[in-house]
Every structure is written in structure tokens, then in C-alpha cells.
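Hi there. Long-time user, first ticket. I'm pasting a complex I've been working with (about 355 residues overall). I'd like to know whether the download I got is complete or cut off, because the file seemed smaller than I expected. Thanks.
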Amino acid sequence: MSFKDIFNEDCLFTNKAHARVNLIGEHTDYTGGYVMPCLLNFNTIIQISKNKNKVYQVYSENFKEKKDFNDFIKSKNNDWIDYVKGCLFVFYDENKHIHNTHLNIFITSTIPIGRGISSSSALCVAILKVLNNCFGTQYSDKHIAILAQKVERNYIGVSGGIMDQMVSSIGINNKAFYLDCLSLKYELLDLPSDWVFCLVDSAVQRNLRDSSYNERYSQLKRAEEYLNVEYLGSVKPSQFDQSKINDELILKRARHVITENDRVLRAKEAILNKDIKLFGNLMSNSHKSYAEDFEASTKDVDEIVERSLSSGAEGARLTGGGFGGFTVSLIHSDNYQEWKKNMDNFYDSKNIFEV
Ligand code: GLA
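Hi, the file is complete. Here it is re-exported in full:
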């Protein structure tokens, strides 16, 4: 189906946004720390036109569903349309004068949903970018990212950070996006040409709203209270006084974030020095910390990570919000054929994607 098939006219504006894989730095963004995602080829495309029938009409090519509505009341349906309504709600809230301009919206996407590669942020960024074009609001890509985060936080109800929206709005394919989540300063780093990053899908569906994401968020906020700091991201491993946290669970969660931030800083150096061994070790240590201290991994995911390492990867880890989804592995290009051959013994080729 095309825009014209559904709405019987041509679209006025088109925009798109990509999914991302986070190479390292998990649950560090909302603690004012560091992350290093990278864009993927999977993307979401939004087409739009103004609607004369005084109704919002939205068609999703993936779900083969058309939904019409007139209000933006927060729905608890846990449905894709929530994100569209959320974007309109946030956009109109900033632009009261264009409130109630009815629209036709066509969505098509190649991004697997609920696999930790940020399908929802790409959807929000793409919608907000097309609204920005349609209404000439001239928002910067950074502002688009901030609005997209508002959709997740204020409308959907996930206490997420800013990583996904920033990279989806500003990132460039084949470059690592190193981001300081407090200042929102970023650097686009070249990936060494003999490094191959590969995703393996654990096929475990996750949903940030249902998962323990918000619970982890609250635990880290409690850790900040124990340590009497505004942001856990400001605490260096050498300054971490573990005796200040007399709750074993909170201590483990804080230890993950504090060591993870340090790993991101070292990973940046490793990329700049083209040190694949160091980067790989940091990824694997990140996974260990994510699995043991943050308890955000699953058995299936741990098995993929182990198999990937024994198949010749330099490092491997679960990527994204946790509790299932994709793993990311780093492989030297000389070993890639061998790694792929080994992994093909365990996993269907359609679940393995080169970044
Ligand atoms: C999700 C959130 C991000 C980040 C990651 C975990 O993708 O949207 O803000 O917190 O989880 O690193």
C-alpha cells in the first residue's frame, strides 16, 4: 500500500529516522553519564499531508491498520498509535497556534519492534521531523530529540534517557555517536575499517513499559540519594565510596553505572587508537556488569554472548534497555567469515545483521 492508495492524494512531506545499536554505555544516559550508540540501516519513514475532513487519519503499513482520532488523551492501550498521538500532543503543546490542523499520516518501517534498537524513538523522531517540515517550525535536530524524549516521558510514561532520540535525530551511519548526556555535547567517531559490528536477535520481545526499566531508574535515583550526588554519572570509580550504600541491591545497580561510564570513556580512547582488543574487552565487561550487577540480561542472551565470543568475536554484549532483544558483537574483519560460519550453526542467518 502507498500513501496515495490510502488517502487518495499525494503526500506533502516525507521524513525518516533510523534505529540504533548502543555499542556501550547502558542505563547511563539518565544518570548524566556517557553512551556510544551507532545508527543502523533499519529506518522508519513518515509521509504526511493536511486533512480536510477534520480528523487525524494514521495508517501503519507494518500493522496494516488505519486509525482515526480527534483527541490526544493518553491511552493505556500499549499501542503504536500512542506514539503518534504523543508526538502530536507534544508538538501542539509547543505550538498552540497550529493546534487542530488535521493530518493524514502514513508510517512504514523496517525496524524490528521491542528488540532494544529503539524503534519507538525512531518513530517519534521521524514524526516530529515531518511535523517540523510541514509547519516550518525550524527546530534543530537537538530540539527534535528533546521533544521526542518528552513524548516517551510525559505521554507514554517511560522514564527513559536522551540517548536514543539524540542519535536517531543527529547520528550518521557508520560513525559511533559519543554523547555526554548531561551537556548533550557529542562527537561523531570514525569506526576503524577492519572492525565489524554484528547484531544477533535473541527473539525475546521486550517492552519498556512492561519491563523493569522504570524500576531500575528508581533504584539508580535512590543510589544518587545514598551518595548525595545529583548525578551518578559524575562519580568516578576512584571516588565511589561503596560503604555509603547499605542496601546490597542498590549498591550493585550503582556499581554497574559507575563502572559502565568509565568503560564508555575508555571505549572512546580505544576507537581513537583503533585498539580492537581493548574495545572488545570493554564490551564483554559491560555485558558481565549488565548481567550480574544490573540483572538486565536473560539466559538466551547470555548464551548468544558466550557463543559469539567462542566463535571468535573480540567482545559481545546485550544492547539497549535490557531484558531481551539484540546482542552486539565486535569481530575483526579477518575473522568475520569464520565467526559467521560458527554462529550459523546455532542461529538462523535471518537473525544475524551486520551493522
Ligand atoms: C532505552 C532508553 C535509553 C537508555 C537505554 C539503556 O533504550 O530509551 O534512554 O536508557 O534504554 O541504556
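A couple of notes from our side: The mean pLDDT is 95. Residues 22 and 37 are 4 Å apart (CA to CA).
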